[in-house]
Amino acid sequence: MSFIPNRGMYVPIKTENRDKRWSEPRIIIFSFLAILIPAAILLTLPVFSVSGLSFTDALFTATSAISVTGLGVVDTGSHFSISGKILLMLLMQIGGLGQMTLSAVLLYMFGLRLSLRQQALTKEQLGQEKFTNIRRLVKHIIIFVLICELIGVFFLSIRWVPEMGWEQGLFFAVFHSISAFNNAGFSLFSDGLTRYVDDPLVIITIASLFIFGGLGFTVISDLKRNAHRGFHFLSLHSKIMIIATPVLLFVGTVMIWLLEHHNSHTLGSLNESGQWLAAFFQSATARTAGFNSVDIGQFTQPGLLIMMLLMLIGAGSTSTGGGIKVSTFVVAILATWSFLKQRDRVVLFKRTISNQTVTKSLAIIVVSGIVLTIAMFALMITEKAPFYEVMFETISAFATVGVTAGLTATLSEPGKYIMIVVMIIGRLGPLTLAYMLARPKPTLLKYPEDNVAAG
Question: What predicted TM-score, i.e. pTM, was given to this entire model?
């Protein structure tokens, strides 16, 4: 027996069969697949595409949309009909919000109540405390998402409505606003956003959308509650995100500019202000957004390495982005620093980070490394491509980024399925792993300690 909270009371529930058959990670995975498979089947229908789509390509596209990755084996703008593009917008929105949040929204729309189990899963996916009012939380999330996306539509319409007319310009604005906020990276332009590389209105609007989407709903909720009280009252997670996000953006921007501003195929052809704007956008988009304003395939190999590191770090926990997450990276760095300083605790902002959090962060990094190594090895067998392209594309898929160095468009059939699995693991793996590690099973049995030679 175990106990779950219900309005201040603890209600006993049986856990033996539930844990074996319907554990939380399984529910999350099956709910993801329950949306993915029907979506892939729909995309094969003629009404959704101009020239038809094989099931493999439809599954790849649906996975990329729901996992908010943005990698594509066909050109989104020319291949899909209006119905197909609307379906992609819906899938991107579902992927950004998360399946459990979507379930909560649908149940509340029909006047139904969430079960205690559903509430627990939704709170876990959104990184909330167990006593959080889930109805109010979901309402605030939906309002925040709609406001951000509508603001994005407004500013993008200023540029695209005069260029394309009301109907097409507004549709492009809506599509790219949804894609950007949910860190999906799908674009209706065949060349991404390269034609707007030095257009501050388009570039800053798109970048702002995926930066806010990548902060995470936990941080937004915390800021809403405590912003008026000052930085000191924010949670440790929010403090990490608020400081680490601009630091990573700045370091990434400077490094990309230093490595690429002499490259005539990327930043070298732009004026100085255009170079910095392009460097900023690539630094921001590498943190799981998936858009590009220059040809990533023309980057120097050191530039690609910086992009890969940024992709691996990713966005914030409980956000629309992927990667190992900023907080995981920061905790691992702090734990390493504490070890080098021979300290027995990891401390930040006068708060001790629990050993469980440190262990979980290191486990996520190790498991991510194992998954990436296996996927790279498999792709090196199935694809005839340079190692750096395989490495870049695999990390992009795992971190649900969606920028490509050119390999995705030429993937073989087995390669596509490898990338599909990587995208699914990238979107669900770290979450399910964290969920499992966050619920340790206590034991009264304790073995004597011993040392192992390490290092």
Answer: 0.84
